[in-house]
Amino acid sequence: MEIKFRKIYIVWIVLSVLIIIFDIYAYYKIEVLKRFVWAILVLAINVAWAHFWVDFLKEGKRQKEVESKFLEFIRNLVETVKSGTSIPKGILQVADKDYGALSPYIRKLAYHIEWGIPMHNALLIFSEDTDNPVIKRSVAIMIEADQSGGNIADILQSVSSSVINIKKMKEERKSSISSQIVQGYVVFIIFIIVMLVLQVMLFPKLGGITSELSSSASVLGVKSGGGDKVNLDAIFFALIMIQGFFDGLVIGKFSEGDIKHGIIHSLILMTTSALIITTVKGGI
Question: Which terminus of the chain has fewer CB atoms gathered within 10 Å of its CB, N or C?
Fold first, then answer.
């Protein structure tokens, strides 16, 4: 799956820069918004890449439609070949039907066959254009089987069954772990709440107790052990970001079998947690 850089991305990046400039202005000039400076910064960063991820999700949806329509294309081709028509002529006959997102690629395949390009080369170009792993694998099987002299109708039928089985396996895997995905998000939100309770309620009280003990010790003439203070807020924020990143990768790998989709889940978890923390605390 390849996403090409588009001019619209520049618009969103410029919008993100403008939000950051406003954020800096609000920090110094608008007292009411000063508490939400970090939250606005997180929002601005996400605006910069928002349209890219929208296109990524649209491309993923389009690829699923391409797989589904490829199955319909193979079925139509099987029926045509079983009637005694050769594959090239069969492709030309079924190319005029509507295959949704796959239609432009099938028409291009038909044009290549009409222009005299060898069928195997035309099929390889077709599979490369779609950039779909299921179609690439199916076309490779078709070419190998055809070169070995097998019954082409049986080959197409086998390819059709293979595509159906792959689709069923993906759907079954997704449905079987949907509850685990929800559970992963719920556990992560609980993790954020626990961290916030520790930082906002528990640690300030512990710090107050420590200060009182230090004061009492100094009054009694006892020197308390000192040292560099550790920025626990920054450490906890980093822990939450790391947790969100790897949780997202695991969720994406389980649900879609692809790390790329895991990155989307990671960004959702990291963005959500950053917005919650910066809004509640007024900073990191």
Answer: N
Q: Which residue has the higher pLDDT, 160 or 109?
A: 109
Specify the pLDDT at position 22: 92
Distances, alpha carbon 222 to alpha carbons 34, 212, 218, in Å: 41, 13, 5
d(CA 123, CA 113): 9
pTM higher than 0.85, yes or no?
Answer: no
73 vs 66, 156, 263, CA distance in Å?
10, 10, 33
Are residues 166 and 248 part of one domain? no
DSSP 199: I
139 is a domain residue: yes
Task: Count Cβ neighbours within 10 Å for each residue of 30-58 and write b for 16 or more, e otherwise.
Answer: eeeeeebbbbbbbbbebbbeebbeeebee
Report the chain's terminal Cα–Cα distance, integer Å. 36
Which residues span the domain enclosing 144?
Answer: 63-174
**pLDDT tens per residue across span 157-166:** 777 777 778 7
Radius of gyration of the chain (CA): 29
**193-210 pLDDT per residue, tens:** 888 888 888 777 766 555
